[in-house]
Amino acid sequence: NVAHGLAWSYYYGYLRIVLPEIKERIIASKFFENCNERIHMCKKFILLFPESCRCFPTLHDQDSDISVEGHLEPVIRNRAGTVNRYYRSTVYSVKDNIDPNKKYFFIGEYITAILTMFEMEQSNLAGLSTHDKLLQSAQFYIKIEDILKCHVECNNTYKIIYFKDQSERGKIPKISDIILTTIKAEI
Amino acid sequence: NVAHGLAWSYYYGYLRIVLPEIKERIIASKFFENCNERIHMCKKFILLFPESCRCFPTLHDQDSDISVEGHLEPVIRNRAGTVNRYYRSTVYSVKDNIDPNKKYFFIGEYITAILTMFEMEQSNLAGLSTHDKLLQSAQFYIKIEDILKCHVECNNTYKIIYFKDQSERGKIPKISDIILTTIKAEI
Ligand SMILES: Nc1nc(=O)c2ncn([C@@H]3O[C@@H]4COP(=O)(O)O[C@H]5[C@@H](O)[C@H](n6cnc7c(N)ncnc76)O[C@@H]5COP(=O)(O)O[C@@H]3[C@@H]4O)c2[nH]1
Secretion signal: which residues (chains A, B) (predicted)? Predict the structure, then answer.
């Protein structure tokens, strides 16, 4: 049951470390300082969950309408023998799809833990069929939401965006649109 | 089956990224430049595997005879939406237990993935009993060695040190001694 362990690993090894202080880190950033009527910044961590578990190296690689802007100040922790391990959060921006003068900054990334399931499916050695991967992917989604609900320090700090990136009719959703919808609902 | 997913995650998300170039990064470091008859540097990545899966924040926290010396140049990758994610390797040193004028530098850390199993056992929510954790811990050890044997680019780049950190007679092994034995066998 791959999903169970990966969900707990993702919570203990990452979300518990970066989510609780994310609002403060956003508000303290130079990006937030630059906000005005035309420039908004989303105060929640946007976590992308493609159904196939396929995670591109950067969001720009999946959708060129998403631009890389920089990083928040990193979270730095001693963990499991790594002294001063860096946890970096990438700041992206996307233009409004209605008013091109409007821009939205957001902290975003894919759910790194699911990339393992994609890579296991791609490898011949790991023994994870596409069918199993999709089952485990759904299990992971249920599990991680369960875990996060039980930990109040993470409440209201994130938005998980689950999306079908494998379209049977050849039309893949544009993640900039999906993210814009989410950000506007938040702001 | 928590161990299976964690082992693949640890390989795809970490070892595959940091092990292949570890010798070159060690040789390129200022620590290696300073080596002489009295100062040696181990050219393999030392990965500590405590049986209980309990990983201290730093190795110095488990054994004060191990000193923190610094870091290698980090590996930097775009991964799953994090732009320029840092992978840092900590450089430690330990004095010879026979000749105190001799010193050994090494790259070392605990196996991060097993810390998740320790934290799951400690939490009431994750449903991992101590008995299950010890079973999964053994499974992880078998699995990660299996995985690494199948990937030639990782050959001869690491040493996994599995040790019983829970002693029934109250005597916990001194990890500096265990590490010294391993390093001297390598050099
Ligand atoms: N020592 C060490 N140094 C590192 O830089 C490092 N990076 C990863 N790992 C370990 O490798 C394995 C695979 O990593 P992956 O990124 O897929 O999962 C990670 C990832 O989904 C998420 N995560 C952790 N750190 C970050 C980070 N800096 N940015 C984004 N996601 C992260 O949380 C999961 C668990 O992390 P750890 O529990 O720290 O251990 C990981 C894991 O066992 C590391 N181990």
Answer: none
